[in-house]
Amino acid sequence: MGDHESLEEYLKAAQPRLVIRVVRGTGLKFKVTPYIKEVEHGCEEVIEEGFDPDHSPLGVPVYWRIIKRGDERLYCSTHLLRRDQLIRVWGTRGLVYCDPVTGMAVARIETVLPG
Q1: Rg of the Cα atoms in the chain
Q2: Which residues contact 82 (CB under 8 A, 6 or more apart)?
Q3: DSSP secondary structure letters along the chain
Q4: For 46-99, what is each residue's pLDDT tens digit?
Q5: Which residues contact 110 (CB under 8 A, 6 or more apart)?
Q6: Distance between CA atoms of 79 and 10, rounded to whole angstroms?
Q7: Using an 8 Å Cβ cutoff, are 47 and 73 in contact?
């Protein structure tokens, strides 16, 4: 991907099928569930959104959104990941979502927000 503006637009428009759902448990424990999204979730209301090209905890540029889906509020981080990272999380099933030229795929982390 080229400059930050084109990467921002690409990630903003992306509809990732590779998703990791994160739910906080008790204490500092989290339940992390990777899955491949087969169908769209339906109506989502975007509360806030933005692009962080340099300071994401993932170490890569991220397009983030806070959304409301049904009764849940979620913090969603959409980003690119390499083929080897994809295989570690989703296995070879996820390779169909990997660009054959760049070796990259779009993924999203959806963290359930409290309250």
Answers
A1: 14
A2: 103, 104
A3: --SHHHHHHHHHH---SEEEEEEE-STT-EEEEEEE--S-----EEEEEEEESS--TTSS-EEEEEEEETTEEEEEEEEEEEHHHHHHHHGGGGGGGS-TTT-EEEEEEEEEPP-
A4: 999 999 998 888 889 999 999 999 999 999 999 999 999 999 999 999 999 999
A5: 19, 20, 21, 22, 74, 75, 76
A6: 10
A7: yes
